[in-house]
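User: Quick one: structure for sequence A, then sequence B.

Assistant: Sequence A:
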Amino acid sequence: MADRIRVARIGAAHGIRGEVKLWSFTEDPMAVAHYGPLETEDGARRFEIEAARPAKDHLVARLKGVGDRDAASSLRNTDLFVPRDRLPPIEEADTFYHTDLVGLAAVSEDGNVLGTVIAIHNFGAGDLIEIAPTAGGEPLLLPFTEATVPTIDLKAGRVVVVPPVEIEAKED
């Protein structure tokens, strides 16, 4: 399991006073402001959220030391992490952090290995699971839904994947 968890991504500048759009990846979006300093993936930079408020599909945040639009703009697309031990413990059997899935085997319903989970993404239309196929080739991006990924077994180190059925185009 990863010892650091990505909890947010800084988006575009918001206004002229250094605020940023902040996409929170926590179950409660506002909780990201309570985990203490957030760090870049390499740990080289730390950010403290001084204030945050909900917006349409993101938060608007003021970060300590970011005082103008140029400084805020320079942070765009910066992923923010916290040590795993600062996050709430997982108490439910079917609950996990997305990072816990990375590296698991992706298998079909009949047990054939399809590949390895390399990421979970959300580009705005729902979560996608990315799988590097065992046979090589381009990674597969599939909807990360209960229909497509009906079983997640962390102890066994695998997820069961049922790829969506392709619909053949009919000739008129």
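Sequence B:
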Amino acid sequence: MNAESGDTIHGSKQHEATIGKVAIITGASAGIGYEAARLFAREGAKVVVGARRQTELDALAVEIGECGGTAAALAGDVKDEAYAKALVELATNKFGGLDVALNNAGTLGELGVSVPQMALSEWENTLATSLTSAFLGAKYQIPPMLQRGGGSLIFTSSFVGYTVGFPQTAAYAACKAGMIGLTKALAAEYGPQNIRVNAILPGGTATPIGRTFANTPEAIAFVKSLHALKRIAHPGEIANSALNLASDLSSFTTGTALLADGGVSINRT
């Protein structure tokens, strides 16, 4: 992966491991989800892309189709249980089943606010968007995976709340840490039925959400300095890690919190 251009080098084994799979990707209108949808499709997966913005999703589906891939788009709110069900129904009705789900949608919530000053409504909205949505995804994604004899369920978590604590990020950190607990419980429960469940933990990444935090030259320089690699990730780099978890190349990997964080969790320089 060239972090500047976003170009991806595909290995033949990884391509062969993903051909024929059906994947749902949420948060696909931008950032990591957008790059993951394009990458999964290039590697032969049929993708169902979800996010709130239908126009952006439709454009993504057209782009994938023009590049020889296959995609279907459905807009909605990941906090809505009916939407989680509808995404799965679209995958199964249009493509015949479900093999992979990348539950990537989420929100930072209200940063810079301490818990005593945080409104309950803000706490609940952040958890609903970033954690309850993961539960709802899994609730409807697991049954069709069982019908296929297995699958790969992936959640986009974070190093925040897991290896690092930042002040005034309580709701976001709680969501992302809770997602790792959900990952481990589901991995233990469904491992005997060949469903692998993993969380991917990006570091600082050049996404629209990431830029709301690092939105000045000084802030960007600070975020870069936190990482051992001294840079911010291109979202395509995180998509590469998600593809590995989605593919049969990670066939003996489950219950993990996979750090794709540029060394932010170990860096002290």
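DSSP finds nine helices and seven strands in the chain. The beta strands are 22-26, 46-51, 70-75, 100-103, 151-156, 195-202, 257-260.

User: Thanks, that's what I needed.
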